[in-house]
Fold this sequence. Notes:
The protein is α+β, with helices and mostly antiparallel strands and about 250 residues long. It has helices at about 85-100, 110-120, 130-145, 190-200, 215-230, 240-245; strands at about 1-15, 20-25, 30-35, 55-60, 65-75, 150-155, 165, 170-175, 185. The radius of gyration is 20 Å and the shape is elongated.
Amino acid sequence: MLIKTEGFVIKNxxxxxxxxxxTIFTRELGKVTAIAxxxxxxxxxMRAGIQPFSYSEFVLYxxxxxxxxxxxxxxxxxxxxxxxxxxxxxxxxxxELIGAVIIEEQTNNRLFNLLGKALYMLKKKDIEIxxxxxxxxxxxxxxxxxxxxxxxxxxxxxxxxxxxxFSNREGGLLCEQCVDRDRGAVEVSKHTxxxxxxxxxxxxxxxxKLKISEFLNNDLSKITRRYILEHTNVYEFKSLKxxxxxxx
Length: 248
């Protein structure tokens, strides 16, 4: 059976001298693994469309164990991301996040649209990368069903919180009366929580020039990344290691 669908290439792994195994996040099928035969040949017409980040239209044949890419026409290859090492690393991080939570053939249109918007925004000039990435992380958690409670105490439901403590284990904020539930909960600024709630509900296309202070960015990044690592069962993200090296 042939299936026509659009999708983002999440991963491309060499399979043989001329073939590749690609992981594609599609709108209609969710995440699929497919073999792309002959795409490593220099004159392959599909070569550009099966590179990571590429947004392409695919014709897939469903076999017994995996799909085969019968046809691939690139729509947007996001070439400019590859010209900027920081943008390339951040974009790779977004793909790693998607790959960590989407299971085979599970559709998620909200995540699909979020990824598309974020990649298109990252390729633009004069944008605030931190704002895009922080917004993506928060909405990624929401659309994956993993979002922490950042509006009230995760234990008692109280909204009267004066000293904000965030617990990875419990899944959100703890008030003063419930903080003993997790002695490892980290203190976080009330301004960071306000920012998180704002970004969670914002249109990522409309806030790309919103500048976040270094303190708020670091504070929010601290809690979201630890939370993501714990709740996606990922040991580490390779792209973040590269970014740490670039920062030094």
